[in-house]
Target: Putative FAD-binding domain, FAD/NAD(P)-binding domain-containing protein
Amino acid sequence: MGTTVEDVVIVGGGIAGLATAVALKRAGIEALVLERSEGLRATGAALTLFPNAWVALDALGVSHKLASYTSSLKGYVTDVDTGEVQEISFTKANGDAVGPRSVHRKALLEALADELPVHSIHFSSKISAIETQQHEGSSIAIVHMENGTVIKAKVLIGCDGVHSVVSRWLGLSEPVLSGRSAVRGLAVYPQGHGLERNVQQYVGSGRRAGFVPLTDKEIYWFFSCTSPAKGTFLAEYPEDIQKEVLENHAKDLPPIFSDVVQHSDLSTLTWAPLKFRYPWNVVFGNLSKQNITVAGDAMHPMTPDLAQGGCSSLEDAVILGRHIGTSFVKNGQVIVQKEMSEVLGKYVEERRWRVALLITGSYISGWMQQAGSGWGMKFLRDAIFYKFLFPKMVRYLYYDSGKLDF
Model:
């Protein structure tokens, strides 16, 4: 099928991959994005973007495309066992009225993809192998495709998710099961739902559920629980997922939650185990080697309990784009292969500790909210986590990944 040579090849056309391509485009670099799916991946229905994500989207020049989504400045957590309700704030201690906004995943992907030349995203592109070759004292990555095509890349970036081929090539440890699984979906009310755009959560022994309105007619909802016993299969068909949640998990939750689940667009329902990479494997692992690195879930898969999977991917994109773009511009619009190992190394060192802390915080958040209903755990959750730890975590989510001024 032939051999081609590219400046930058990005494996994966999800949030991290498309955002990185947009960041590089702002520096004048046209990256080739290889996506194994037949089109944009919209699995997950929606995602919540905290202020750090919006700073990154500003830098990428796409935040205005998502301006119709409004902030959720506060949330309510209901203890299923006692009926007690706590209010939690998503604003900083100084009162800045900037909260998270939940958006359609597809809308975000389309906003990013629209910034790129159509020919720069190759769908149905599956990788069979990766190798490196030395050329004039520098390294070049060689990507072998299943259709026989060979692509030589001056820089190779793996944005190919939790089961990343590129991270495996780097020798990173495989993500591990968290012991929990989650259902996510989108509810549609053609006549409108009439709810305020606040986050509603329900916590109990071994489970957590919640929802947040996206628009006047759509609501994003989730349910997470202790994973079924080993060997038990999670429901795969949307109708079975909906039935399982309604009949076995939501019976004692407030009627509004069951109503939301009943209004689900079945095509958006997913149920999957929650995985993460041990933070020490991120701190001490090989996140880059020569001219190859990773970003997004390929680098730092984490549980969704702080809603930082997509947010941190957007941070990665801006920071990686700035490091590569700065070198590119400095060298007269040329990728100098000999510099790439150092350039990628600087990106990795800038990201390593922050994402390791996000993985840790996300895991702790999920564990403390869902671990049990005994008085000890309830005290930890209500008096320690929601009152003390969570506000500190929210402040950590107000992060500025910087500009892309080249």
